[in-house]
Amino acid sequence: MASISTTYDPASTAQALAEAFTSGRQTILTRQTTQASATEKGLSTLSSALTAFQGSLATLTGLNKTMSASSAVFSDTAVASATATATAAAGTYSFFVAQVASAHKVSYGGMTDFAGGGSLTLGVGASSFVVDLSTKPTWTVRELAAAINGATGNTSMSASVVTTGSTSELVLTSKTTGAANTISVGSTGVDAGLAAKLGAAPNTLAQALDAVVRVGSETGTEIRQASNTLNVIDGVTMTLTKAQTAGSAPVTLTVASDASKTAANAQAFVDAYNKLKTAIDALVSPGDPKSGGAPGAFAGDSGIRALRDRLVSVLRGSGTTSLANFGITANRQGTLTLDSTRLNKALATNPTGLDTLIGSSAATGSSGIAGQLDSYLKLWTSSTNGQIGSRKDAVSKLQDNLAQRQTLLDKQYDGAYSRYLAQFTQLQSVQSNMSYNTSLFDNLFSSAKD
After folding, report:
1. Do residues 131 and 148 lie in contact, with contact meaning Cβ atoms separated by under 8 Å?
2. Backbone dihedral angles phi then psi of residue 254, each to the nearest 5 degrees
3. Which is deepest, 63, 219, 259, 403, by most CB within 10 Å?
4. What region, left, alpha or beta, does residue 59 occupy, with left being phi > 0 and alpha being psi -120 to 50 degrees?
5. pTM of the prediction?
6. CB 108 within 8 Å of CB 169
7. What is the DSSP string of 3-50?
8. Any idea what DSSP says for residue 325?
């Protein structure tokens, strides 16, 4: 009599059947989960690319920013330096720097530890603040300096300590230049020794001085102010660094358009746009099955393609003057390039043309290409109702739904596995018993024949 085989494994059999039971739905769910993850990552990539481009626009064309640039150069850069905006009028100006502004700096010598009590009133010019010395029984000079630096209302001076043998010097420095910003120290109810040292005339380390500049020559009209930064020419900021000696020739400031910096700004605009375009192109790429190139996260997304097409449309413009007139052209793929020679020729005949065309991305006074680009991109990047935010919310909800479906499918798999395992374990037991009985019969009939 033939024996009954019981060599199969109930666990592996149950696993195979449970996988077959859920495989169709698992395949669909895995594909949807993978696609949702790719969409989430693609949205993050798109958001970063758009935000970076908007940041570049703000840097180049934001409030008080222009593509065209001017330079301001002093004949002696050791005396002063300058910067200019594009609106600065070209020209040559002469100045004599008679005096640079300085901050008041004093020191009090012979300082030692002292008993707590009373308060100090310190000030620079019209501002003052109070240091309470009653919070400690004894004070060191370093603790006093720290209390001055950390005092409420102290925005005008800094304190430091210089050790000189067994005593120390308390050094006070004004944070503001100018003749009116002198340091003052007063005391009320403090240690007698401290009051005597702070009440004595301090050692002046640096005088409080105004900046003094004369227009044209050493005897020209005087300009006096507390700061070394002057804005006496529209669009130009001058910073004084060194006073001239009496009898010296005045320094010359030359303000002119800066072709190289303007070209650099234009190139920065081109680079920023090309970087954004490259990112969007990758996201909507259909892929290349022949080379194994995978499609982008938004290969079939008409909305992202419309975004790319709108950016191209804005750059092309609709008027008689275009970016191409200023040497900024696009190839067949839409990538921008800059011809600096053509740009310089165009600016020579139309100095404000590039600024007018590209305009401003500032919230107030938005205009030109930059304004159009920024306004359109805000429809995507706005934190309140932007397209990217809405899409991210939709993907997040989809991922939550897919996670719930996966949990349910996992439970169905576990249930099927347990059911099949119990069935085939029982079947294996029955087969084992039948095989045992068959062996008994075989042995019995074999003995009877003998």
Report:
1. yes
2. -110, 120
3. 259
4. alpha
5. 0.69
6. yes
7. PPP--S-HHHHHHHHHHHHHHHHHHHHHHHHHHHHHHHHHHHHHHHHH
8. G
Report in angstroms the alpha-carbon separations of 229 from 114, 210, 235, 315.
Answer: 42, 11, 13, 39
For residues 24 and 409, is the Cβ–Cβ distance under 8 A?
Answer: no
pLDDT tens series, the chain, 450 aa: 445 455 678 889 889 998 999 999 999 999 999 999 999 999 999 999 999 999 999 999 998 888 989 999 999 999 999 999 877 888 999 999 999 999 999 999 999 999 999 999 999 999 999 999 999 999 999 999 999 999 999 999 999 999 988 889 999 999 999 999 999 999 999 999 999 999 999 999 999 999 999 999 999 999 999 999 999 999 999 999 999 999 999 999 999 989 899 999 999 999 999 999 999 999 999 888 777 788 899 998 999 999 999 998 898 876 678 999 999 998 888 899 999 999 999 988 988 899 999 999 998 888 999 999 999 999 999 988 899 999 999 999 999 999 999 999 999 999 999 998 888 888 877 777 777 667 766 666 666 555
Torsion of CA 441, 445, 446, 450, to 10 degrees: 160
H/E element holding 258?
none
Task: Give the C-alpha separation, 371 to 41, whole Å.
Answer: 28
Cα–Cα distance, 309 to 37 (Å, whole number): 26
Dist CA 405 CA 25 (whole Å): 10
At 298, which helix (H) or strand (E)? none
Q: Identify which of 337, 261, 233, 348 has the alpha carbon closest to the alpha carbon of residue 60.
A: 261
Instruction: Give which of 400, 374, 214, 14 is closest to 408, Cα–Cα.
Output: 400
**Rounded Cα distance, 217 and 155, in Å:** 37
**Residue 34, number of CB atoms within 10 A of its CB:** 11
Integer angstrom CA distances of residue 254 from 30, 86, 219: 68, 14, 21
Indicate the Cα dihedral angle 234, 239, 242, 246, nearest 10°: 10
Nearest to 340 by CA among 356, 329, 352: 329
Q: Are 164 and 140 in contact (CB under 8 A)?
A: no
Count of positions (residues) in the chain: 450
Give SS3 for 67. Answer: coil
